[in-house]
Amino acid sequence: MKTHARVVVVGGGVVGCSVLYHLTKLGWSDVVLCERKELTAGSSWHAAGGFHALNSDPGVSRLQSYTIALYREIERVSGQDVGLHFTGGLNIAATPQRWALLRAEHARHRVLGLKTELVGPAEIRRMCPLMDTSGVLGAVHDPNEGHLDPAGATHAYAKAACLQGAEIYRHVRVLEISPSGRGTWRVVTDRGSIEAEHVVNAAGLWAREVGAMVGAQLPLVPMEHHYLLTEDLPQLKALAGEIPLVLDLDAEIYLRQERKGVLLGVYEKEATPWAAAGTPWDYGETELLPPQLDRLTDALEKGFQRFPSLHAAGIRRVVNGPFTFTPDGNPLVGPVPGVPNYWAACGVMAGFAQGGGVGLALAQWITQGEPESEILAMDVARFGEYATRAYTLARAREFYARRFQIAYPNEFWPAGRPAKTSAIHAQLRTSGAVFGVSYGSETPLYFARAGEPAAEQPSLARSNAFDAVREECLAARSTVGVLDISSFAKYEVSGPNAHEGLERVLAGRLPEVGQVRLTPMLSHSGRLMGDLTTLRLSEQRWWICGSGYLQRWHLRWFAEHLCGAGVGLRNISEEYGGVALFGPRARALLARVTREDVANAQLPFLQVRSLEVGLASAIVARLSVTGELGYEIYVPTAYLPALYETVLAAGVEFDARKVGLYALNSLRLEKSFGIWSREYSRDYTPGMAGLARFIDYGREGFIGRAAALRERDAPASRRLVTLAIDALDADASGYEPILLGDRMVGFVTSGGFGHCARTSIAMGYLDTAVSEQSDGLVVPILGEGRRARVLGAPLIDPKGERMRG
Ligand SMILES: Cc1cc2nc3c(=O)[nH]c(=O)nc-3n(C[C@H](O)[C@H](O)[C@H](O)COP(=O)(O)OP(=O)(O)OC[C@H]3O[C@@H](n4cnc5c(N)ncnc54)[C@H](O)[C@@H]3O)c2cc1C
Questions:
Q1: What is the largest CA-CA distance in the chain?
Q2: Which atom in ligand 1 lies closest to the alpha carbon of residue 225?
Q3: 390 Ramachandran zone, left/alpha/beta (phi>0; psi -120 to 50)
């Protein structure tokens, strides 16, 4: 066994072996993997081996497609068969809502590069003669789905990695991981120690334990899962080919052929966590959990109805095995915040669909400094401290139980809530606020009107919130809107070297004292890393504000690139709460609650002041994402309830209205203002996103400058545009293709209804060659083509006079 290695991967399941393979593929051969028993000894050996590319998150879907395409490569490199069966897959719909959802998703598949098709019941029966299609409305067919041999695939990754220089140590358990004192890790095993530059936690069922070795609490928990294997079925014996993998989402079962019988898997409603307090070290390799067939009765009943020949089939084997779930079902990948050179590759629920993509992204991150595409949906930093063990358990249970249920875009599931609330939560609630949740915090979406239930109906089309949101938008553009912005992220950066540090991480011009600036942040490869707002409060004191759910993500980047001698960094997101005022009467309202002069000359657009507002000392910044005359007022959290009351009481005179985040979204779309994770992400460059004017190209030394300069000189192939859409009762929601005839010429990033402009709006990326095209564009909404036209200017106040006035 080596005593030094560049990387030690802990865990020889499919994920660890894929990470090892990708590290060698990217040229790092001094890498080793420790496996406490035999390879696959966690959940990998008893997986059902199914794979598919469909995922509600486009980034994850892309990595799943990559995983599937990779198997041929792995076979070639390793010389080992992985038992691939490309049977294709059918996602069937047996309710109108499900069918609407599948049609909407099918339109999006084109954007993701998936070649799926919609098929009707007759075609379904032709592909899968076992199925009784009564009640079935149709299905999405994906020819690129199938199944493989889980152990074969894991061993093929391992062999391919070893052929490229990696070493694998079987029956070597990692006992301890500690800093060596030389900037490396000391990985202590039961067969000696290895000094490593990087450690990857790919310990699957034991990832929590291997995380605890470095003090990291990883939000995942194993859940029990059943499938059963039948004896041979006469209908299948008679078939020359194989039936496709079938997901009957409404019955919550999946089925595929296994030899001449079938494998039937069940997501039962009563999700059962396993080893919630910690995974025993003596579990694994060959044992399974005792089957709990009584828990499956309902699902099996539905399965037998859909596949009647299973009634008479003998059951050859029942498998009950555990595998890990995170609060949102996506993996935990990337650098673990606060633990340098310790990487997560765990929480992978579908190792055979996702393992390749996880391995690629992580290996790129380790060897090249960043993954090549945005993977926030599986970044370990998407969860904050709110993701406690209790929260994780509640959310993972809920995710498992709802795994196949329709997840409506406007639906926020109830488990693990409320966890964090704003200081004015009670005030918001008594005003009829309907809450969503972001980064564990309850955030007001809109306010139900008198006599309406304070609950939004889950819906693919516009919901019952529509009229209330319209009134909020109209108020914001005609009088003044008041919004709780406590969930926004706020970081204080201070000290003698703060300016220098900020000049390194921020790509935009820094503000002078008393100024506010929009300052993009770039990755090393010149792609967007943040759309931050920077407030300069004094010579050496700055506030950086951004999206609340990115706190850990931002802080991880800052820890690596901003912090150092003479630079102080504090996350003050929870220390300070805030309200935003926006609309033509916002200044008059602010003037009523402060004794200080807030006239335009004293507090112009993009300026910040320390003012007394009500009884509190506040930081007041003049800006608004609504495009209106607006202010963000931040006070220490303890003062927020009083401030809110003061503002609302004074606001009566100005017809102020409480507004929520839905209104904010509508208002910003009317102004063509992008937001993070939609229009802006690591997938886009400043040129594409229309943010080049905020980049200070002339300043040397900021991260991503060289790449940004190259990009500036080579015109982008796509650029961000705003579209007006002839929609009926539903708006674009993201990742719909933009079509010109049969050709896909772009895709939507976000959409909604512009209540003041009375237009359905979408933003999206369009090929530059057709950017000026205003006729003939079509965007499918819920599967129905709708005419779209590119807007040359924002629908409201194109010159930006209101916000400056
Ligand atoms: C019944 C069932 C059906 C499934 N069906 C599918 C399916 O159809 N498709 C699909 O994609 N996925 C399926 N899965 C899920 C799939 O099995 C997992 O996603 C996958 O196995 C996760 O792999 P992993 O490498 O992350 O973890 P694991 O397989 O758990 O591997 C972790 C490894 O780390 C080792 N290890 C842990 N701690 C240490 C240590 N301290 N030192 C050394 N070694 C250590 C363990 O021994 C283990 O081998 C199924 C799971 C189950 C239970």
A1: 87
A2: 1
A3: alpha
Q: How far is ligand 1, taken at its centre, from the CA of residue 40, in Å?
A: 7
Q: Is the CB of 48 under 6 A from ligand 1?
A: yes
Q: Which residue has the higher pLDDT, 194 or 285?
A: 194
In this structure, are residues 113 and 104 in contact, taking their beta carbons and an 8 Å threshold? no
- Dihedral angle over CA of 594, 596, 600, 605, nearest 10: -70
DSSP string, 714-741: S--SEEEEEEEE--SS----S--EEEET
Residue nearest to atom 18 of ligand 1 (CA): 351
Distance, in Å, from the CA atom of 136 to the CA atom of 118, rounded to the nearest integer, reads: 13
473-513 residue pLDDT tens: 999 999 999 999 999 999 999 999 999 999 999 999 999 99
User: Is the C-beta atom of 483 inside 6 A of ligand 1?
Assistant: no
Ligand 1 pocket member 225 (CB < 6 A): yes
Q: Whose alpha carbon is nearest atom 27 of ligand 1?
A: 204
Ligand 1 atom closest to the Cα of residue 350 is: 11
The vertex-395 CA angle with 146 and 229, nearest 5°, equals: 35
Place of tokens 């009634």: 311
Averaged pLDDT, 59-83: 94
Percent of the chain surpassing pLDDT 90: 92
Across the range 265-285, mean pLDDT stands at: 91
For tokens 């819906």, the residue is 459
- Residue with the nearest Cα to atom 34 of ligand 1? 11
Residue type, 532: L
Instruction: Say if residue 89's pLDDT is above 80.
Output: yes
Among 33, 43, 46, which is best to mutate for testing ligand 1, by the most ligand atoms less than 8 A from CB?
43
Whether 111 has a pLDDT exceeding 80, the answer reads: yes
What is residue 109's predicted lDDT score, i.e. its pLDDT? 92
Nearest CA to ligand 1 atom 3: 47
Q: Provide the percentage of residues in the chain whose pLDDT is more than 70.
A: 100
User: Strands (DSSP E) along 507-629, which ranges?
Assistant: 516-522, 528-538, 541-546, 568-571, 576-582, 608-613, 616-621
Ligand 1: residue whose CA is nearest its atom 20: 351
Least confident of 9-23, 399-413, 438-452, 520-534: 399-413
Q: Own/partner pairs for 593-602, CB < 8 Å, 24+ apart?
A: 593/646, 593/647, 593/650, 594/620, 600/805
Question: How far is it, in rounded angstroms, from Cα 409 to Cα 587?
Answer: 35
Between CA 532 and CA 543 the distance in angstroms is 10
pTM of the model: 0.97
How much is the mean pLDDT over the chain?
96
- How many whole angstroms from its chain centre is CA 627? 27
* Ligand 1 close to Cβ of residue 49 (< 6 A): yes
Q: What's the pLDDT at 716?
A: 87
According to DSSP, residue 232 is labeled P
Residue with CA at minimum distance from ligand 1 atom 52: 47
Q: Is the CB of 416 under 6 A from ligand 1?
A: no
Cα–Cα distance for residue pair 590/592, rounded to 1 Å: 5
The helix or strand, by DSSP H or E, that contains position 176, with its residue range, turns out to be strand 174-179
